[in-house]
Amino acid sequence: MVFEGSEKIIELGVQPGSPSLRRLSYAFWQTLVASAGAEIISTVRNESCDAYLLSESSLFVWDGRIRMLTCGATQLSNALVLFIEKLGAETIAYATYQRKNEYLLQPQIRSFAQDLAYITQTISGKGYRIGHLDSHHHYLFTANNEGHSGKALATTKPVVTIKPLATTELLMYHLRGPLAEYFRSPCQTAEGICDALELSSLFSGFEFDYHLFSPLGYSLNGIKGDKYFTVHITPQEQSSYCSFETNLTDKDLPAELIEHFLLKLQPERWDLICVDRPLLVTKRRDNTSINTCSITTDAGYDVHFKHVHQQGELQFTQII
Amino acid sequence: MVFEGSEKIIELGVQPGSPSLRRLSYAFWQTLVASAGAEIISTVRNESCDAYLLSESSLFVWDGRIRMLTCGATQLSNALVLFIEKLGAETIAYATYQRKNEYLLQPQIRSFAQDLAYITQTISGKGYRIGHLDSHHHYLFTANNEGHSGKALATTKPVVTIKPLATTELLMYHLRGPLAEYFRSPCQTAEGICDALELSSLFSGFEFDYHLFSPLGYSLNGIKGDKYFTVHITPQEQSSYCSFETNLTDKDLPAELIEHFLLKLQPERWDLICVDRPLLVTKRRDNTSINTCSITTDAGYDVHFKHVHQQGELQFTQII
Fold first, then answer.
1. B317 → closest Cβ in A101, A109, A128
2. Residue B135's pLDDT is what?
3. How far is B69 from chain A (nearest CA, A)?
4. How large is the ipTM?
5. Which GO terms describe its molecular function (chains A, B) (predicted)?
6. What's the rounded mean pLDDT across residues B17-37?
């Protein structure tokens, strides 16, 4: 009835001095992606990053870390565990896993509690909820800096200095207006969506890779040096959704860029998640902020969360 | 991590002229209750109604209808289907099924979509959602008045006049204040809870049956003639919850009675669901009504829904 557009996300970093992850074979990434229930569609590379467009979202690989997003009924915690098993727990500097509360029970995939039980068989860590239980909220797992459970570590282990990326995620739900209509129209094209969102001018110098899914759905990866951004759209009427996330920071990611997406896509509700950077403040007056909160994880980084209602007509009933 | 206190509810009525349901054996009700994953704890009866207190909520049986509520990881759609199978679909005048969006994925039980698929193998009908997808919402199934699918009905079938009960449900989440503390304290007693809620004076003339669960939880059934009310409390810290529902109407159910529960239990959020009667209007000023909506089902009765935030400190993050 409802497509779960919101992505699960994993990010893993390896210890300084480890061989570059970008030297791992294409078959390795195929296997990793398949473990979550997705496939690689296409790839772009530059001097710092390999970006894979997936049948369900994206995978980015840098020398020392990976970040993978998958939507729908994928099981991304499988990929987290497989990555640790393949590389060896002693290689892992950090590991995080994030997922939004789903709209619907999906008996075929693990609950977050089951994810936690599954992941901590391989690496110890802690689970968090951010956001009110009765509204949009996100679950987060972060591995302990001490690394994996079950094996004693050598005391000569270097001090871990590699940290998760500082990221900004803008998750927009229930899109409205002409662009939302266009995403559902038969005349849409991949280039048309890119143009309508003005991505080429906003992200000049980025190399793009995008795909229009049949019958609906759009994914785009953009990379420039070690910076990435990615846009995913699932425009299905009952649960339309667009996500934008990036590791751009500071002057490269002004609040106006967030406002640009909000103005274009007119979401009824949206979440902003900023990791290791402050929440961007948007200026629109016709919003109701339902929920703003922050946590500092045991692994020592801050996560800030805001959930916003846009005023106006909301869709309250549905015949199923 | 979180106990799902909110009840699933079924209600079924039989055709006028059918034998009284109250003549069915105790073993019949045991089997029906067991099919959902619950047990009968105790019973009270009067001239119009048999009220069963269950290990997970309540069952009320009148001559021409039943209403059953079960919480937690029960599978109440099993009981709906079993009741129709045992009685024969041609006997059924109406059937409804209701469930709230759960906090957590529970892979062991059916999703509402799966419930719909399961139920409509036995009786045709339609599913509805009431409330915003991104906030508290409830799913509803109502059988078509035409009765069951699969078999042609005799054209001499009488016009169906029996309708679902006019009910009021007050569902209170995240209880605060001294009474919420008392529900979690080791010194609580069943009588103490009944007294603290002032139920004897509010519902004078009702026969009560109540049970305090170990280590936590409280259920109460009250009956007087064909009127019932029931209170269920699951006070667990992360997801405390109390429900009150009744078929009292008009002057017997003033808005002050709803306010009484809200003042006593100080819920952070609450839902009010009124079937075939208008939403009661409460006077408190410090509320934010997030959502008010109504639907008229194909079966021809109105369902009104209100979801309310109470202002004040809300619990936004949690370590799991």
1. A128
2. 85
3. 20
4. 0.71
5. adenosylmethionine decarboxylase activity
6. 97
